[in-house]
């Protein structure tokens, strides 16, 4: 699937908190990104965020995943630390979106493979 | 980097042994392939085989990697079981090449990302 980064990345809403710590675009590593996607649940999270988002960012709960919250927190953090998603803290909850522009710039076509992935 | 699968995959030489057990093209899984590439040494092996081959297939020794043979055997097997390389047993030694046509058919562009990878 060919993706249009501009269509997939919504503008940052006014008043959004600063992103949590994450690697800069230039520090993204292909083997680290692929390692984060080697877990089917994490692959599914990224694919769902990429293709089914209806807002700027989403909480863990939005995915409807039947896993303990601590497990989801771990997986979302792994995706953020690998550079796949950006997370912001809104009070007690974190919301996430895919770093489409950064990933397309560094690893063109990778998110298209994720979009084509089937469980 | 855009790769030309036809240019990268040499024909099977007459008399080559049958390949060792491997997943069929249709059974390849993106998350498994990415998991195998999440180790920098394995990424390097695939990239080297892809871009620097001067024969149909290559032994572990050809790579000049400074690792114990048992460790290399493990990494090559992981790559084969994930579907990235095809291995054949020639007497006491195994030789490997990248499954370019299968990978391009299933995950177009993935090997181009590997080719562009920098250590």
From TrEMBL, chains A, B:
Coiled coil: none annotated. It comes from the Bacteria. Residues 1-23 are annotated as: Disordered. One of its GO terms (molecular function) is DNA-binding transcription factor activity. Residues 32-112 form the HTH arsR-type domain. This is ArsR family transcriptional regulator. It comes from Streptomyces lydicus.
